[in-house]
Amino acid sequence: MDGDREEAAEAGKGAFAPDASEAARANASEDPRGACGCNDRLMRTAADSRSCGDGRFPLLCAFRCAGAGVAYAFCSQRNLKIQLACAAAAVAAGFALGISRAEWLAIVLAITVVATAEVVNTAVESVTDLASPQWHELARAAKDAGAGAVLLASAGAAVVGLIVFLPHILDML
């Protein structure tokens, strides 16, 4: 099955490589940022991975696209901005309280898990909106589950914050 998919993508026809990808491939050669053109759009097609001729999506383009996805989440999601402000406060508290290396690892891991959950939730919401523009019970369930994952990650991060910071604060009193 994967061989059929690859052949269809390389042939530039079928469900795996829509006609729009031909235009994207043509525009990619004019793009001064490289063959990926990922700053212009957040979607890639199977044909994009073949745009450089080696059958793989270039690594630099993959990083650019990942960065564009994080930037999209940051620009479009109020909660991610709030969570990153809380993360900055936790980092400042860590410096002020002189937490240990193990405590830093816990704080950094908690920050990373919350931010990752929010970016994944943004992806779930975007795909859900694309697939189901009208209200549907399953779309609601998907969005609620994504939000629930962020809630669980945030609650866990709050517990980590209490475990790390509370003893230091109590020692100061």
Strand content: under 5%
Radius of gyration: 21 Å
How many helices in DSSP terms? 6
Structural class: mainly alpha
On the 0-100 scale, what is the average pLDDT? 79
Give the strand tally: 0
What does this structure look like?
72% of the residues lie in helices and 0% in strands. It is an all-alpha fold. The protein folds into two domains: 2-68, no CATH class; 77-172, Helix Hairpins (Orthogonal Bundle), CATH 1.10.287. Helix 4 packs antiparallel against helix 5 and helix 5 (101-131) packs antiparallel against helix 6. Mean pLDDT is 79; it is low at 1-35.
Describe the SSE topology.
Blueprint (H helix, E strand, L loop, with lengths): L1 H10 L7 H10 L30 H18 L1 H20 L3 H31 L5 H36 L1
Helix pairs in contact: 3-5, 4-5, 4-6, 5-6
Protein traits:
6 helices; mainly alpha; 173 residues; disordered N terminus; Helix Hairpins; globular
Brief summary:
This protein has 173 residues and is mainly α. 72% of the residues lie in helices and 0% in strands. The chain contains six helices and no strands.
